[in-house]
Amino acid sequence: MSDFQHISVAQTAELLAAGKVVIADIRDEQSFAGGHIDGAFHLTNGSLTGFMQQYEFEQPVVVVCYHGNSSQGAAQYLAQQGFEQVYSMDGGFESWRQQLPFVSGDSA
Of 43, 65, 74, 79, which one is the catalytic site residue? Predict the structure, then answer.
């Protein structure tokens, strides 16, 4: 497969709860540090090689950005690299943040 698929926040949460996906968060360092989905891998140009070494191509991947736009390009790239099940989460982290718990960088 060389194309990604779209996935909803609810579908992502279900797969994550079942331990069936890895979340690849492509937002900038400050945004990721400020809050992210629990267990998310912070995927950047600098961490891409490590990501590809850590996860098998059979591992389903959900790419998350701010609003669900940038993640589409990143998801397509991962699919082209050989990942078999790649998703772009519609609505991005902002949608997740409004609906579900996340790891916050704020201690207050």
Answer: 65
Rounded to whole angstroms, the Cα distance separating 63 from 86 reads 7
Beta bridge partners of 61: 22, 86
Reduced to 3 states, what is the DSSP secondary structure of residue 36? strand
Q: In this predicted model, what pLDDT tens digit does every residue of 24-64 receive, in sequence order?
A: 999 999 999 999 999 999 999 999 999 999 999 999 999 99
pTM, rounded to two decimals = 0.93
Between CA 3 and CA 13 the distance in angstroms is 22
Among the ranges given (10-19, 68-77, 96-105), the one the predictor scored with the smallest mean pLDDT: 96-105
In angstroms, the CA 24 to CA 41 distance is: 5
Cα 79 to the center of its chain, rounded Å: 13
| 65 belongs to the catalytic site | yes
- The pLDDT score that the predictor gives to residue 106 is 56
For residue 60, give the nearest of 106, 18, 108 by alpha carbon: 18
Domains in the chain and their CATH numbers?
5-98 (3.40.250.10)
